[in-house]
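Posting for a labmate who doesn't have an account.
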Amino acid sequence: MSDNHEAHAHHISSFTFLAWIWVGLLVFTAMTVFLADVQFSGSLGILVAMAIATLKAFLVVYYYMHLKFDSKVFSIMVGICFAVLAVVIFVTFLDYIFR
């Protein structure tokens, strides 16, 4: 029983580190709010907003949900899910752009 417990030891991130990740999320949120008033040409505004949202999602999944410290199989599965989501969003925006 102790071997199984040692194989699944949990990593605990420091409060300071998680606070810096939180500050980063706040900065990205402020960037999103600020850039909402900026007039971009074409669909560039949507692309910028989606890029910032992707970075925020990566920070949350990777650090707050401890994907960084989990098995690589979980990282691959989450990566595949994000890739499928990116393809679906891309195809949706292709439809929106060429209307």
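Reply:
Got it, the structure tokens are right above this. Residues 2-97 form one domain.
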